[in-house]
Write a structure and sequence with these properties.
Distance between the termini of chain A: 14 Å
Radius of gyration of chain B: 25 Å
Strand order of the largest sheet of chain B: 6-7-8-3-9-10
Largest sheet of chain B: 6 strands, mixed
Helix content of chain A: over 70%
Strand content of chain B: 15-25%
Largest interface: A-B, 23 and 32 residues
Strand content of chain A: under 5%
CATH topology of the domain at 268-510 in chain B: Rossmann fold
Oligomer: heterodimer
Number of helices of chain B: 20
Chain lengths: 327, 546
């Protein structure tokens, strides 16, 4: 079997196991939180009988492992279950929504914002990293390094507020709220998401740019780089044609890591800009102990990491002839 | 450039005068090259020879107007075919490099970019400098591959560097240098990393192609016998200064300087072989393998007489080092056993007692990597003294000084770190570490291969003296026949994991030889400029080309 195919299959298999382990961890950690959905929704004034009846209706009175396996059985047949919220108490009308329906629009928003940030950040950091390596130790290199370090050193909400201050309050270029509605057009979305996307870009550029620069500079001492120079290649040719092709593996790994962060780690930015993403949905679900929603979000987050890492591994193999063409 | 630059043979092509190059180390600038002159005519091959650190490579690169990072060319003039490289801009120099001056590096495997196919790298400079269009350059590259007798010349270029052997890579690199048809090629130790049998082929291929295209060359090496086959004139370099300049034949027959003679000094050690029946170690029909399927050792039997030296010779991949790993228990044999003083040793290292471990010590090729860079000499040699002999405090330090004395280093070395030692001194410390355990048997794995001739001689003489004084037994693994001649009593010749021949030095090194031993011995370059020509003729007679 070709090594690429083998790696993909191996990782996908391992990924499934990881997902199950994560679902167990999330499920049981919510179990350890005090209170449950019944108490959270009905409030402290509720009669114990009411709470009990509500629990029975939601199946919360069953033992933990039974509930877990019910949920797992549903997931394996493609059903993420229904959210707890929207349920009336016994006899009332059931206005609960399927977890999938609840997550889907939020996920679309999150992926939109993540792609937008990635489309700006990845090319930008590659460009900065490569040019910084090319003009190593020059003023340019130092300025780029210092600036990216500065933006990564601020907490993301602070960067967000600075951007709001300058680009929204003072100059009114972009709106400070990104509460996009479901019927917004594509360009409206782009316009509304500009500040959150810019914030995320500033936060992740440093990491990727520094890795690109370091990976290239690390190779610059190799004998084959000296050889390329002795073959009359200019500095730019040396870096683009000889160093970069060998530097992809570490760079792509860092990129994948940052893209995953764009999907799963941006809740603070979502809150600042009131952006309706998955992160906020999950936090809300945790506060109300809405287990099916929490589980659904956790699965998506975990799958994001697994797929992006798989992607990085595939790139590492494809760009390394030693792995792609074994002797 | 439309001007025909192929001038007349005999014209001066490269003239370097009073070259001074500084290198930065230990926080200050040192002079590496101190005013050296080089005058090279078109089509002429100049050999540059000297120990490592003599400044050979630096000088070779300077001929391209190039200084490695941490070096700078500080003085003198470099005129290449009328172009003043000292005044030329970086752009102008880029245009010369890879088009009119090409470079062949020592380690082909490190000097090829692992990410690109061989043929793309071969034609890179010819295409970049607009000398040939890509398809023409590719056709030409395949022709060069054929000229250099590479297997599969039409398709080998499609492979990646990791898919071909070191000897093949070295030839591809020669093709890479030839591709733009340069006027001058700098060969920087191009065969040093190769086995002797491969070296002969590569040397022959390089010499032929350089002669055919009438290319001038600077051939840098530390091996005088090799340079004798290639060069018209030889320059001996030491500490960045010219020791001697002469015609090759004159240099070999009648060197003026004592230093030049010392460059083949290992060849001057003579050891009388001794017969002995007292066997200290017997490797008894041992098989070993790393993967379980491919045998790296196949039915190997070696007897090592006490107080004597058994040299194990063969090319890389012949199983020499694996035999050492089997003896020390690092790689438990899959079949057979190892008898030490008549008693079978447990196959695996972890099952052996401290006494058994103590009696067999090892010295490695790379003294650099065999020592912890953060340990001082005191820690390095002190460790076996504590571990095996239980010496502590004053007693230990006393013994430490004795050991330093034995390896001919003074007390001042005791608190130095490996980085503060020269290559030869590092290897001496490794010898002292092995001695500290009071072993019966020391396995020396290519211990002199990374060292210069003069330093090699010192180490070999030290080992011989220690053997005489303490009755040590050595297993000496090497691919260098000159070393074997210098130190061994018995010789074991290995090929592809098997013992091809085994016996006293005088028997092995005298005819009649089995085929492989003959190939191995005949491939060792001799101090005779006609040696390679003669050898090739002889081999051609024996194996008429198909």
């Amino acid at each position: 079997m070709h090594p690429v195919v083998r790696t993909v299959l191996q990782r996908l298999g391992l990924g499934l196991v990881t997902l199950i382990v994560i679902s167990i961890i999330i499920f049981s950690s919510i179990e350890f939180l005090p209170g449950d959905f019944g108490e959270a929704v009905l409030g402290q004034a509720a009669l114990p009988e009411t709470v009990q009846a509500f629990r029975t209706e939601l199946g919360l009175d069953l033992p933990m492992h039974e509930r877990y396996f019910n949920w797992l059985g549903g997931v394996l047949t493609g059903d993420l279950g229904n959210s707890f919220s929207g349920r009336g108490s016994s006899g009332g009308m059931d206005r609960s929504r399927a977890v999938a329906d609840l997550i889907a629009p939020r996920l679309a928003n999150t992926l939109f914002l993540a792609s937008m940030a990635a489309i700006i950040a990845v090319p930008l950091s590659l460009f900065l990293g490569i040019t910084a390596a090319l003009y190593r130790n020059s003023i340019y290199d130092r300025v780029v390094n210092a600036m990216t370090l500065t933006t990564i050193s601020f907490p993301e909400f602070f960067v967000a507020y600075l951007l709001i201050l300058f680009l929204s309050s003072f100059t009114k270029i972009f709106p400070s709220l990104a509460n996009i509605s479901s019927d917004a057009t594509f360009w409206e979305r782009v316009y509304l998401s500009a500040l959150p996307a810019l914030t995320l870009t500033l936060v992740i550029v440093a990491h990727m740019m520094r890795m690109t620069r370091a990976a290239i500079i690390n190779l610059m001492a190799s004998p084959y780089i000296e050889m390329a120079r002795l073959k009359g290649a200019s500095k730019a040719q040396v870096i683009l044609e000889h160093a970069l092709p060998n530097a992809w593996a570490p760079i792509v790994n860092v990129i994948a890591f940052n893209l995953a962060y764009l999907v799963v780690g941006v809740v603070v930015v979502e809150v600042v800009f009131v952006y309706p993403g998955v992160g906020q949905l999950m936090i809300d679900a945790v506060t109300t102990r809405d287990v099916p929603v929490v589980q659904g979000c956790a699965m998506i987050f975990a799958a994001t990491y697994i797929l992006l890492n798989l992607f990085a591994d595939i790139i590492s193999i494809v760009t390394n002839p030693r792995l792609l063409h074994p002797r | 450039m439309s001007v025909d630059h192929k001038g007349q043979i005999g014209d001066v092509l490269l003239e370097m005068r009073g070259i001074v190059i500084d290198g930065y180390s230990d926080d200050r600038w040192h002079e590496i090259i101190k005013g050296v002159d080089v005058v090279l005519k078109r089509g002429e091959i100049m050999g540059v020879i000297g120990e490592s650190g003599a400044g050979k490579s630096t000088l070779g690169l300077a001929a391209m107007g190039f200084a490695q990072p941490g070096c700078k060319i500080n003085g003198g003039s470099i005129i290449f075919d009328g172009i003043d490289l000292m005044k030329a801009s970086e752009d102008e120099k880029c245009k010369l490099r890879g088009s009119r001056i090409a470079y062949v590096a020592q380690s082909a495997s490190a000097s090829f970019n692992p990410a690109h196919r061989l043929i793309d790298q071969t034609i890179e400079s010819a295409v970049r400098h607009g000398i040939m269009p890509e398809n023409e350059a590719k056709a030409d590259a395949r022709k060069l591959y054929r000229d250099l007798q590479l297997p599969d010349p039409d398709s080998i270029g499609e492979r990646y560097p990791h898919q071909v052997s070191g000897g093949q890579l070295q030839r591809v690199m020669t093709a890479m240098a030839m591709s733009p048809r340069p006027d001058l090629i700098i060969f920087d130790e191009p065969t040093t990393a190769l086995d002797v049998t491969t070296q002969v082929e590569v040397l022959a291929a390089m010499r032929e192609i350089v002669e055919n295209y009438n290319t001038a060359a600077i051939y840098i090496t530390h091996d005088l016998a090799v340079v004798a086959q290639m060069a018209d004139v030889i320059k001996v370099l030491r500490y960045g200064e010219t020791v001697e300049d002469a015609d090759t034949r004159k240099m070999l027959t009648n060197p003026e300087k004592e230093y030049t003679q010392s460059l083949w000094s290992v060849r001057s050690i003579v050891k009388e072989e001794e017969v002995s029946q007292d066997i200290v170690l017997k490797v008894d029909r041992v098989d070993a393998s790393y993967t379980g399927s491919v045998k790296v050792l196949d039915d190997v039997t070696i007897e090592v007489p006490r107080g004597h030296t058994v040299a194990v010779v063969g090319e890389s991949g012949s199983g020499k080092s694996t035999a050492a790993r089997a003896i020390t228990g690092l790689l438990p044999p899959s079949k057979g056993q190892i008898l030490f003083n008549g008693e079978p040793l447990p196959p695996a290292l972890k099952d052996r007692s401290i006494e058994q471990l103590q009696k067999i010590q090892m010295i490695y090729q790379m003294a650099d990597t065999a020592m912890n860079p953060r340990h001082t000499v005191r820690d390095i040699i002190g460790r076996p003294l504590e571990f095996y002999l239980g010496l502590r405090g004053k007693e230990r330090d006393q013994r430490l000084l004795e050991l330093l004395n034995m390896i001919e280093l003074d007390d001042s070395f005791i608190d130095r770190l490996p980085a503060e030692l020269s290559g030869g001194q590092k290897q001496r410390i490794c010898i002292a570490r092995a001695l500290a355990a009071n072993p019966d048997l020391i396995i020396c794995d290519e211990v002199t291969s990374a060292l210069d001739q003069i330093v090699q001689k010192g180490i070999l003489q030290l080992l011989l003296r220690l053997q005489e004084e303490f009755g040590l037994t050595y297993i000496f693994i090497t691919h260098d026949i000159a070393t074997v001649k210098a130190i061994s009593d018995q010789i074991v010749v290995m090929l592809e994991g098997r013992v091809v021949e085994q016996g006293m030095k005088s028997e092995i090194l005298a005819p009649p030889y089995p085929d492989y031993t003959k190939l191995l011995l005949s491939s060792v370059p001799e101090m005779d400029p006609d040696w390679l020509t003669g050898l090739l003729k002889e081999r051609a007679k024996e194996q008429p080309p198909v």
